[in-house]
């Protein structure tokens, strides 16, 4: 039997969801209000100041520099450059604050446009760097370089939107002696309803139905906004198989308890440091996401895992794979990384996570990291794909 002895902590007060200036300042104030632990408060404050400085620098490099440079090449006036450049530079901060206060079609559109600009900003920056070299060697006129930079960046952006709109089905074939019969299930991860629409979820569910899985496993970040109504998730009821879900970091950042209630009302089974036995030769274990890198090790130690049947572990982050193997887990499935989602961020994410995307084989178990079914922020993928993962596990 797999018996939970402790509950995962549902609220992590020191987490930061979307790194905007207002939220960093809010986190600093919250840390100052805690009694005692003055050294810890000072350490947190320094950390937040560093993050704020990094945020400002990123806005200047990715947003301000290319926009103002293009305006200069096009010989716009100082006033026109400010009118164009300042809103774009502050677009992420303004759009996220406005969406927190006002949730209307207009503000959603503004947020979408701000996210589109954020998505193309790396390509815009790279194209401006290239244009700088061409202009320096007098190989191209500045105004021509500006126009080409904009056209190139927007073209890449539109391709990214198309690429993110149609999740592909990735098939993973594994063998196991722990199952009595073959096992077939689907994993989706990082759907990000809130950033993504109800229509997108309907499309994903339609694809899953065609695969005819025994169950659906959702490995976190299914919802990333507060106030998502159950009606926006009702397409889940179209599936005639059990749905299992674990909490990701974005659910923790929002109205977690309300999210749980809405999902339960739709028949979703939420695993929080607990197990489910959909058949006699299978145990599904779910653990809440947490910033602690030892979360998997700690939570598995509280569970009594049956070593004689196939063990599937659902955990949002691709961390703790070694601990999972030691605990007797046969397959661990995760998400979170998005495979960087947009080039060149996948290069940065690769440095942060040992397991980035795809199948990793260990000595006694396997780990699969989904690139994510949806997207966060810009509704685009450049250098990555949106995926629905189908697992076929053959009895040997």
Describe the structure.
This protein is of the alpha/beta class and 396 residues long. It folds into two domains: 43-164, no CATH class; 167-395, Purple Acid Phosphatase, chain A, domain 2, CATH 3.60.21.10. 45% of the residues lie in helices and 16% in strands. It has twelve helices and twelve strands. It has helices spanning 21-33, 38-73, 78-89, 91-101, 105-136, 142-165, 198-211, 249-253, 256-265, 295-300, 321-326, 345-352; strands at residues 168-176, 183-188, 216-219, 243-246, 269-270, 274-279, 282-287, 310-315, 331-334, 358-361, 366-369, 387-395. The chain has a six-stranded mixed sheet, covered by helices on one side. A six-stranded mixed sheet has the order 6-7-8-9-11-10. Helix 10 (295-300) links the parallel strand 7 and strand 8 (310-315). Helix 2 runs antiparallel to helix 3 (78-89), helix 2 (38-73) crosses helix 5 and helix 5 (105-136) packs across helix 6 (142-165). The relative contact order is 0.14. Residues 3-34 have low confidence and may be disordered.
Q: For this structure, what is the CATH class of the largest domain?
A: Alpha Beta
User: What is the number of domains?
Assistant: 2
| Overall radius of gyration | 23 Å
What is the number of helical segments per DSSP (H or I, 4+ residues)? 12
Classify the secondary structure makeup into a structural class: alpha/beta
CATH architecture of the largest domain: 4-Layer Sandwich
- Helix share bin: 40-55%
CATH topology title of the largest domain? Purple Acid Phosphatase, chain A, domain 2
Order of helices and strands: HHHHHHEEHEEHHEEEHEHEHEEE
Number of distinct beta strands? 12
CATH-assigned homologous superfamily of the largest domain: Metallo-dependent phosphatases
The percent range for strand residues is 15-25%
Strand order of the largest sheet: 1-12-2-3-4-5
Terminal CA distance reads 24 Å
List the quaternary state of the chains. Answer: single chain
Shape: elongated
Low-confidence stretches: 3-34
Question: How does the major sheet shape up?
Answer: 6 strands, mixed
Mean pLDDT: 89
């Amino acid at each position: 039997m797999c018996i939970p002895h402790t509950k995962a902590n549902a609220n992590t007060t020191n987490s930061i969801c979307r790194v905007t200036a207002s939220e960093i300042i809010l986190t600093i104030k919250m840390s100052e209000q805690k009694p005692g632990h003055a050294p810890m408060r000072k350490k947190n404050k320094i950390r937040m100041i560093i993050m704020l400085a990094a945020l400002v620098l990123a806005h200047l490099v990715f947003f301000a520099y290319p926009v103002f440079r293009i305006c200069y090449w096009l010989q716009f006036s100082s006033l026109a450059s400010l009118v164009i450049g300042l809103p774009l530079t502050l677009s992420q901060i303004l759009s996220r604050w406005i969406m927190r206060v006002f949730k209307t079609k207009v503000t959603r559109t503004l947020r979408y446009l701000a996210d589109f600009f954020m998505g193309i900003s790396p390509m815009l920056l790279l194209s401006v760097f290239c244009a700088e070299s061409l202009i320096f060697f007098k190989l191209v006129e500045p105004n021509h370089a500006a126009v080409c930079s904009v056209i190139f960046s927007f073209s890449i952006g539109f391709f990214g939107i198309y690429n993110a709109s149609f999740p592909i089905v990735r098939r993973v074939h594994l063998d196991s002696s722990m199952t009595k019969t073959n096992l077939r299930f689907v994993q989706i991860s990082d759907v990000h309803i809130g950033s993504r629409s109800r229509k997108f979820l309907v499309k994903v569910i339609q694809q899953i139905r065609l695969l005819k899985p025994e169950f659906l496993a959702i490995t976190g970040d299914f919802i990333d906004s507060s106030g998502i109504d159950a009606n926006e998730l009702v397409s889940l009821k179209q599936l005639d198989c059990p749905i299992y879900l674990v909490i990701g970091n974005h659910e923790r950042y929002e109205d977690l308890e309300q999210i749980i209630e809405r999902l339960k009302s739709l028949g979703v089974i939420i695993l929080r440091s607990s197990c489910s036995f959909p058949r006699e030769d299978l145990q599904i274990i779910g653990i809440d996401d947490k910033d602690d890198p030892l979360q998997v090790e700690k939570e598995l130690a509280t569970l009594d895992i049956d070593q004689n049947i196939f063990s599937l572990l659902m955990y949002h982050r691709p961390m703790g794979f070694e601990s999972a193997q030691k605990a007797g887990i046969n397959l661990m499935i995760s998400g979170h990384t998005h495979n960087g989602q947009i080039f060149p961020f996948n290069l940065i994410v690769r440095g942060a996570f040992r397991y980035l995307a795809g199948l990793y084989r260990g000595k006694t178990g396997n780990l699969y990291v989904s690139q994510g079914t949806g997207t966060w922020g810009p509704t685009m993928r450049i250098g990555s794909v949106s995926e629905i993962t189908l697992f076929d596990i053959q009895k040997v």
